[in-house]
Amino acid sequence: MLSRDEFVSRYGDVFEHSPFIAERAYDDGFVGDELNVDRVHTALVAIFRAASPEERLGVLRAHPDLAGRLAMKGELTEDSKKEQAGAGLDRLSAQEHARFTELNGAYVEKFGFPFIIAVKGLNKDDILAAFEKRIDNTREEEFETAAAQVERIAFLRLETMLPGR
How distant, in Å, are the alpha carbons of 121, 125, 131, 147 from that of 86? Predict the structure, then answer.
């Protein structure tokens, strides 16, 4: 069985910059000897869902803007960099980048956290369409949608780290 430090070191960033989720999952005994995608994901999601609204908002806010300033500065986490590049967000035209920047600003202003979507399997057009649709949601709807996307991102990240079911 992994020690607490080993578990947090490996899985602490599955939920972007939010190691408290892995710490609590370990401390609460959610993690056993047999680690697989489903078991670890279920444990981490249970902690995320049980977190206070402020903590969950903090997890959402820990995510970078899509094709935003951190990407431009090269300051994304390795996972975020790979995910955004896989969707072509590192190869936007000036016009596309301007549209993402405009939507990012409007979204954060309206909701108070960045637009979050699991980009694996999507391209820039899919992402823009989702962005334009979701910006009309209520804050409550979008909080829940963004939280579900964070959980999906965590699952996809765990799939690259652990054996399947």
Answer: 8, 13, 18, 21
